[in-house]
Amino acid sequence: MAQVSKILRKTDTKKRLSVPIRFLSSLPPFKLGSHAVTFEATDEKGEAWTFQCSIRKRGQYPKPVLTRGWVAFVKSKKLKVGDKVRFTKHMNRATATISYKVHAEKAIKIFGATFGYARI
């Protein structure tokens, strides 16, 4: 099981989610010459979300970002700067299938300081 989590910044909540390069190894392979891959992730309520992960066409650093489907997810979950998102890849060994989960976590703040996160 592979897992990636990120505390959201302003751009992550308004336009796209920047993800670490290590996230790419968890995704389905990019087709030859392609700079984007689409995958589906299921949230804690069982709702399926389709995301597109894109990388730069040129340059040494690919800078992966989630674009398509991301802003709709943020709005649906009412995510804000400081909240957290977690993607998990699961491998079913019996059927050799891969599935993805996405979890949104709201920051628990007291007097402006974050004390933890609660799944929503």
TrEMBL record:
One Pfam family linked to the record: B3
Boundaries of every TF-B3 domain copy: 2-106
GO MF term set: DNA binding
Origin superkingdom: Eukaryota
InterPro entries: B3_DNA-bd (IPR003340)
The protein's name in its UniProt record: TF-B3 domain-containing protein
Species of provenance: Populus tomentosa (Chinese white poplar)
